[in-house]
């Protein structure tokens, strides 16, 4: 039921490739600029930036080619997609515990985005983040 193929982004989607962890500031800037242009308020922009940064960070830490961030808007939704060449397994269901250290970023992403879809395929993993917009 989960991990189903996703439809391709629309033709007008904005896309940028990032290859190194040193580009995380650019990833965040790209996400923030596009979120503001889509009419999202400051709190929602912060959520977008947090989620995109976390997924991109995982791509830099766990894959070999960085990631591609693709962003578009739908009538009531702002969408950020992060593609990388890594494979994503089924994550364990668990609560975030402040004392347990690292490893909770994707759980946090699931909490700040309005909808998260992930699909592992032969080319890697696609993570699509949906945020409601006015």
From TrEMBL:
<dbReference type="InterPro" id="IPR036890">
    <property type="entry name" value="HATPase_C_sf"/>
</dbReference>
<keyword id="KW-0723">Serine/threonine-protein kinase</keyword>
<keyword id="KW-0067">ATP-binding</keyword>
<protein>
    <submittedName>
        <fullName>ATP-binding protein</fullName>
    </submittedName>
</protein>
<dbReference type="GO" id="GO:0005524">
    <property type="term" value="F:ATP binding"/>
</dbReference>
<keyword id="KW-0547">Nucleotide-binding</keyword>
<keyword id="KW-0808">Transferase</keyword>
<dbReference type="Pfam" id="PF13581">
    <property type="entry name" value="HATPase_c_2"/>
</dbReference>
<keyword id="KW-0418">Kinase</keyword>
<dbReference type="InterPro" id="IPR050267">
    <property type="entry name" value="Anti-sigma-factor_SerPK"/>
</dbReference>
<dbReference type="InterPro" id="IPR003594">
    <property type="entry name" value="HATPase_dom"/>
</dbReference>
<feature type="domain" description="Histidine kinase/HSP90-like ATPase">
    <location>
        <begin position="23"/>
        <end position="129"/>
    </location>
</feature>
């Amino acid at each position: 039921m989960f991990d189903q193929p996703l439809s391709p982004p629309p033709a007008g989607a904005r896309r940028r490739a990032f290859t190194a962890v040193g580009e995380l500031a650019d990833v965040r800037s790209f996400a923030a600029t596009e979120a503001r242009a889509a009419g999202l308020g400051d709190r929602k922009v912060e959520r977008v930036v947090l989620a995109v940064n976390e997924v991109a960070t995982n791509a830099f830490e766990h894959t070999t080619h960085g990631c591609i961030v693709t962003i578009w808007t739908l009538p009531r939704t702002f969408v950020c997609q992060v593609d990388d060449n890594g494979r994503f397994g089924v994550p364990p269901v668990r609560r975030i515990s402040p004392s347990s250290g690292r490893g909770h970023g994707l759980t946090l992403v699931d909490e700040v985005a309005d909808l998260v879809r992930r699909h592992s395929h032969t080319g890697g993993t696609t993570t699509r983040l949906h945020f409601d917009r006015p």
